[in-house]
Design brief:
Layout lengths: L2 H15 L29 H11 L2 H5 L3 H5 L3 H32 L2
């Protein structure tokens, strides 16, 4: 087997492993081989994306009253502490809401 054939097999294995292109699908667009796939996007796995996602998820703007840019200026240790405390707070609120729900359910019976 020559190097070109080896490269083709490696490329096909890569594409199929990561779900980038299905060589067995007769309706697959040939442009699928060269387009940007979500599995290959590096901007989705960088620290900025992760912090933004967690900032929104934890509702830190509402909780702390600071913008995301202000949040990014904080030391890393402070950011991790805020995430830890906000997660604990969210769990406590969930427990409170569950207890309230149980009280309301029992009261309506």
């Amino acid at each position: 087997m020559d190097n070109i054939a080896k490269q083709m097999y490696i490329q096909e294995a890569y594409d199929q492993t990561y779900g980038l292109f299905d060589y067995d699908d007769p309706n697959a667009s040939s442009l699928g081989l060269v387009r940007m796939h979500n599995a290959e996007r590096l901007d989705r796995c960088d620290r900025f994306h992760s912090l933004l996602q967690r900032f929104i998820q934890h509702r830190l703007h509402d909780l702390l009253g600071i913008s995301f840019i202000e949040f990014l200026k904080l030391p890393r240790s402070t950011i991790e502490l805020i995430f830890e405390v906000s997660a604990d707070t969210a769990l406590a609120k969930t427990d409170e809401l569950d207890a309230l729900k149980d009280t309301i359910t029992e009261g309506s019976k």
